[in-house]
Design a protein that fits this description.
It is globular, with a radius of gyration of 15 Å. A hairpin with a 5-residue loop joins strand 2 and strand 3. It is built from 5 helices and 5 strands, in the order H-H-E-E-E-H-E-H-E-H. Helices cover 37% and strands 20% of the residues. The protein is α/β, with parallel strands linked by helices.
Length: 155
């Protein structure tokens, strides 16, 4: 990993920071889930990185599953475009299909694009996700240890 002081942060770096925040900072996780669902969830969640999509190649950056049945699937971006699989399916479409499959099974599922505000504003496909959450909106809940990394990603 290149340090934020060197001016370059990679998506894998922010993936690791957000995974850690979701796992270790209950205030951060509760605030994020409230932003996505509009409600409070107090249960401890199973947080996983790089899970496979249902019925497609490609992976989900961060998956958060609660005992109450709530499932939040996060695509984390900094500046890269959306990937497309060999079968021609783009990331937003894969998230839509995966969420639809879970909903058909009775699961309360959401797809979330997590990215800097500029990325979300400039993305033609951001509206294909159920929710968009900016890095900037999470600043107050991000620990000091991760703040420099996230600020560099925003820039």
């Amino acid at each position: 990993m290149i340090s934020p002081s060197e001016g370059r942060v990679y998506e894998r770096d922010t993936d690791a920071a957000f995974l850690r925040l979701f796992r270790d900072n209950s205030s951060f996780a509760k605030s994020f889930i409230r932003t996505v669902t509009g409600r409070s969830v107090d249960d401890a969640a199973l947080v996983e990185g790089q899970r496979r999509h249902v019925g497609s190649t490609g992976s989900i950056d961060i998956s958060i599953r609660y005992p109450c049945g709530l499932l939040v699937l996060i695509e984390n971006k900094i500046d890269a475009g959306y990937s497309v699989t060999l079968d021609g399916h783009g990331q937003p479409q894969r998230y839509q299909r995966t969420v639809a499959t879970y909903r058909e099974r009775g699961v309360e599922a959401y797809s979330v694009l997590l990215a800097p505000e500029n990325y979300i504003k400039s993305s033609r496909l951001a509206d294909m996700f159920d929710r968009c959450v900016t890095y900037e909106s999470l600043r107050e809940e991000i620990s000091a240890a991760d703040a420099a990394l996230i600020e560099t990603a925003i820039r």
